[in-house]
Amino acid sequence: MLCKRLRRAILASVLFLGTLSASAQNKPVAGRVYDSKDGSPIQGASVQVKGAALGTVSKPDGTFSMSVPANTKSLEVSFVGYADQTVTIAGKDSILVGLVSSAAGLNEVVVIGYGTARKKDVTGSVAQVSAKDFTTGNLQNTAQAIQGKVPGLVVTIPGGDPNAGISIRLRGQTSLSGGQSPLIVVDGVPLDDPNQFANIPSDDIASIDVLKDASASAIYGSRGSNGVINVILKKGAAGRTQVSYTGSVSVDKVAKTYDMANRDQWIAGVTKLGQINGNSQGKIDSTIQGFDKGANTNWQDALLRTALSTNHALSISGGSGGFNYRASGTYLKQDGIVINTGKEQVGLRFNAQQKALDDKLTIYVSGVNTVTNRKLVNPPIFYYAYSTPPVYPVYNSDGSYYSYFDFAMQNPVQTQMLTTNKGVEKLTVLTGKVDYQLFKSFSFGVLGALNYFNNQTEFFQPVFPVVNNTNSANLKTENYDSKHGDFHLNYVNSWGKSNFNATAVYEYNYYSHDYYDPGASQMLLDNLGAWNLGAAPKAFQTADSYKEEYKLISFLGRFLYNWDQKYYVTASVRQDGSSKLGKEWGTFPSASVAWRLSRENFLKNASWINELKLSAGWGITGDQENIFPYSKYRLYGVPITGAKSFYDAASNQWLTAYAPTQNANPNLQWEQRNGRNVALDFGILNNRLTGNINYFNDISKKLLYNYTLPFPSPGNVVNTVLANVGTLTNKGVEAALNYAVVRKSDFSWNVGGQFSTVKTMITSLSGKYDNGFAVFDLSTPSIPQGSAQGRGLSGAPITYIVSGYTPNIFYMAHYVGLDSKGNELFDMGDGTTTTDNTKAKLYYIDPAPKFTYGFRTDLTYKNWALGFFFRGVSGAKIYNNTNMTLDNINRFGGNNGTVAALTNGISNSPVASDHWLEKAGYLRLDNLNLAYNFKPTRMFQNLKVFFAANNVFVITPYKGLDPEIHVSGTQSYIDASYTGGNQGDAYYPKTRSFTLGFTTSFK
Q1: Cα 664 from Cα 566, distance rounded (Å)
Q2: Based on the structure, what is the number of domains in the chain?
Q3: Same domain, 92 and 137
Q4: How many angstroms from the chain centroid is the CA of residue 445?
Q5: Quick one: the chain helix, strand, coil %, rounded to 5?
Q6: In which domain, by residue range, is 829 found?
Q7: C-alpha to C-alpha distance for 94 and 89, rounded to whole angstroms
Q8: What is this structure's pTM?
Q9: Which UniProt keyword terms apply here (predicted)?
Q10: Among 468, 477, 827, 938, which residue is least crowded by beta carbons within 10 Å?
C-alpha cells in the first residue's frame, strides 16, 4: 500500500511539474486502452503527450486520465508486444485506444534458453505466439492453440478423438528413426513426452516461443535437434489479489462420414455382384435372404453421437513487495462423438517468486499436478462398422444386442459399450530455482525439477455370444519419470556502446521407464472384469514387466555481444553425453550474426522504416531421442523365431530358451543436424506492416537406422544392426506478414498470415559398420515402408525410403482406365496396357505438400470483436487406402461397401496404383470467434462473452473423411482409416465444434 501511495505521489508530482511548464491552460483527458483483437483491457500501457515528458499509465481495467496542456493535439500510446499508436484528441474529452499486437514485433521479449532477450536482439530464428493470438474453442490438445500460426511448424491431431496423441514437426522430417518432435520446455523444464503438452491448459499460458533454426536451438544441444517450443506460464504481479475465471460449454458433431450403402443399395450391390459372377436370380435371392435380418442400420450413426463438453478455469494471483504468486485450477469434461468415449481432466498449478536480500536473491517454485481419466475407443469398431451389412440390426427384439460371427467381427455397438477400455494418467512436475546476484554484473543459480508421469490402463472384453466363448483382461501400470538439474552462471555488462552477456551451464538429466503388464483369459465369471485375473487357469495367465534408464549430461557456454544495438554476434558450444551411445559425447557449436539496418545513419531519413534486421546463423545439433537406451549392447532374450517357451512335462514347468536378439555397436554415435538460416525481420509504416522471411538449408548426417547385414557373418548374432548411416537434407522458405489495415479508436481491422515450404530429400543410404570383428558396407537402394492393404487385398509396399527422393516416396503403377469387363488398366511404359499391376511400369510420385499456410483477419468495433482463422496445405497427395477397400463391388459378398462401389464400374477387387492416389490439398476455416466485452464495473475488471466454432468447413478434392492425416512412421501419406496403420482401425472421425463461454476477472 505504501509503495502504491508513493507511486501515486511521484506521478502527481510529474503531472504538477508538467503543468507548471505549460504556457496555456490545462484540460482533462480520459480514455481506455484495449487489445484491438479481443477487446480485453491492457494494464500498464504508456500514454504520453506527443513531444513532451508528460504522461501516465493505464489502470488494470485499461482506463487512464490525465491533465494535458490545452494546445495538445495528440497522444502516443505504447505497450510491449503492440505497435505504438498516435491518437488525435482534438475536440475529445474521452478516447478509446485499440492497440494492435505485432506478431513480429521486435520489442517482444522471447525465451532463448537459459535466459530471455528482446526479439530485436535475437540473432537466431525465433517465432512467438502470445495468449491473445491462441486458437479458441473446444481443443483436443493445447498444441492446437498455435496450429497453423508459426511458419514451418506443423501440428497434426488426426481425427476427433479427445484422447488422441499429437504429431509436431518443425521444418520437415529430420531423421529416419530418431526423434522427430521439437523439445517442449515449460518454464525452463523440458517435458519428457510431447503428448504431456495436453496437461498444460492454454488458460495458464502467457506465450509460446518457437526456436526454429540450429543457431537458436543449439543451446539445448541434442534435445533441440528438432527445434524447441518454450512455453511461458502466466505469473502473478504485485498489487491487489486478482481472481479470474473462464467457463465454456461446447457441442461437437461429426464433420463427415463415409457414404456407405443402405439396405436397398446393399441389396442392389449383392444383385450386381451376383450378375457379374454369372449367378442365377434364384441364387442371388437366396444369398440376400441368408443375410437379411430385416434391418436398415447405418452403423456409423449407431456409433456416433452429439457430444457435450464443459471447461472451467479459475485462477488467483497477486503479491506485494518482492513476492508474487499465481494458483490455478482447471476442470475439463470432454465427451467424444463415439459412444462410451471421452476424457475428464482435473489440474492444479501453482507458481511463486520471492525476492530478498535487496532483490539480489530470487527464489522461484512451481508445481503442476494433472489427473486425466480416459474412456478409449476399441480399435476394431469402425472396421466392424464399415464391414457389417446394413440388414443386420443393432438389437434383438428383446432389447439384447444382436450378435453375429464373421472372421471374428462382431456388433460394433455391443463391442464399444460392453468392453472396458480406459486409463488414468497422472502428471506431476515440481520445480525449484534459486538465483543470486553476487556482483553487479555476475549472478549464479541452481534449478531442479522432478517429473513423474504414471499411466494405468484397464481392458476387459466379456464373453460375446456367437462371436467368442471366452473373455480376456489386461491391467497395465506404466511410469515415465525424470530428474533435471542445472547449475548456471551469467555475466552481463556494458562498456560504452558494447553490450555483453555470457552464460555457462552444467546440466544433468536422468530418465527411467518401467511397466508391469499382467493379463488373463478364460476367467470363469465376467462380473469382476479385469480385477480377478487369478480366477483364470494358470496356463492362461500372462505377465510382462520391463525397466530402462539412461542419463544425459551436458556442459554449455554461450555469449551474446552487440555494439550500439546495431551489430550482433551470438555463439555457443555444448557438449552432450548420452548413456545410450557407444561414443557417448558429442560437441554441438553454433554461431549467428545480425545487423539492424534501421539503426544506420543512411536510413535515418527513412521515417517509414521502423525496424529492419538482417541475420544469419549456423549450428549443429544432435539426436538420440527415439532409440532404445541399450542399443549399443549385445542383448539376449526370447527371440521371435527359433527358441521359444515350451512346457516340460518332466518338471511340470514352463521353460524359456534364450538367444541373442541384438548386435552390439560400440561405435553408435549421435545423429548430427547441420543447420543454416538467413532471415529478414521488418516493421514499416509506423509498424502497421510487420513480418519476417527465413531461408533455411539443413543437412542431417549419420542417420540412425536398422540396417540388414549379411548373415551369418563374423561377430554378428542377428541379421540387423542399428548404425549411423546416411544423410538427408531439408531446404525451405518461411514468411510471416501482419498488417493493421485500420487503426481507429472505435474500429480496427488487422490481417496476418504465414507461409512455409520445405523440401526433404534423402541423399545417401550407405556407410560402414565396424563390430570389432569386421567392417561391413551398409547400403540399400530402397527400404519398403507403408503398404496398400485391406480385407482380401494385397499387402505389397507402395512407399519407400530411396536415396535421391523424398522420404516415403510412392512407387506404383499408373492407372489409365477400365477395360470392357471392368478391370483396371495400367500403363506398361511402351504404349500398351495391362490388367496386372505387378507387370506395369512403376513410377515415383512425391506426395509431400508444396507449401503450407495460414491466415487470419480480426475486426473490432467498439466492444465487439470478430476473428477468422484459416489454414491449409497445397500440393499434398494421399493414398486413399480406405476408399480402395470400400469402393469395391466384391464387398457385397458378405460385407458392406460404399455407394460409389455400385457406380465406379470396377468389377474386380481394386489393386494398388495411382488410381487411389488423390490430391489432398485443403483450405480449412479452422476457427471463427465472436466476442463482446462489457464495460468495467466496480466489481469486474473485465467481462467478456464469446462464441467460437472450430473446423467450420474444409475445401478439398480429397474424397476421404479428412485430408489431415498423421504423417509419420511407415504409413506416411496413406489413409488407413479402415485397415489400420497411421490412423488405425480406431480412426476417429473429425469433429465440428461450437463453444459458448465467458471470461471475467475481478479484484
Answers
A1: 53
A2: 3
A3: no
A4: 32
A5: 15, 50, 35
A6: 251-263+287-624+649-1002
A7: 8
A8: 0.86
A9: Cell outer membrane, Membrane, Signal, Transmembrane, Transmembrane beta strand, Transport
A10: 938
As a whole number of angstroms, the distance between CA 118 and CA 102 comes to 13
Question: Cβ distance 688 to 680 under 8 Å?
Answer: no
Whether 727 and 846 share a structural domain:
yes
Of 48, 77, 99, which one is at a domain's C-terminal end? 99
Distance CA 115, CA 859 (A): 35
Pairing of strands 228-233, 183-186: parallel
Per residue in 145-166, pLDDT (tens digit) is 888 889 988 888 878 899 988 8
- The verdict on residue 634 lying in a domain is no
Please report which confidence band the pLDDT of residue 5 belongs to, taking 50, 70 and 90 as the band edges: very low
Q: Tell me which of 82-91, 814-823, 923-932 is least confident.
A: 82-91
Q: Residue 139 forms beta bridges with which residues?
A: none
First and final C-alpha spacing in the chain: 15
Residue (of 507, 528, 377, 519) closest to 446 by Cα position: 507
d(CA 575, CA 568): 24
- The reply to whether 571 and 475 lie within a common domain is yes
Q: Please tell me whether residues 83 and 144 are part of one structural domain.
A: no
Q: In this structure, is residue 637 part of a structural domain?
A: no
For 539, which DSSP code?
A: G
Q: To 5 degrees, how large is the angle CA 71–CA 73–CA 79?
A: 130
Q: Of the candidates 70, 99, 128, which is a domain's last residue? A: 99
Q: Are residues 418 and 519 in the same domain?
A: yes
Locate 441 and state its grid cell: 554484473
Which amino acid would we find at residue 803?
A: S
Confidence class for position 321, pLDDT limits 50, 70, 90: confident
The model's pLDDT over 282-311, given as tens digits with 9 standing for 90+, comes to: 999 999 999 999 999 999 999 999 999 999
Same domain for 875 and 828: yes
Instruction: Read off the pLDDT of residues 523-559 as tens digits, 9 standing for 90 and up.
Output: 888 888 899 899 899 989 999 999 999 999 999 999 8
- Distance (Å, whole) CA 177 – CA 19: 70
Full DSSP string of 562-595:
EETTTEEEEEEEEEEEETTSSS-EEEEEEEEEEE
| pLDDT recorded at residue 753 | 94
188 plus 220 within the same structural domain: yes
Residues 535 and 473: their CA atoms lie apart, in Å, by: 11
Q: Do 690 and 712 fall within a single domain?
A: yes
Q: Whole-angstrom Cα distance, residue 39 to residue 44?
A: 16
- Say what the alpha-carbon torsion angle 403, 404, 407, 409 is, to the nearest 10 degrees: -40
For residue 910, CA distances in Å to 22, 392, 917 come to 87, 26, 13
- For 821, the grid coordinates are 469387363
pLDDT at 119: 64
* CATH assignment at residue 783: 2.40.170.20
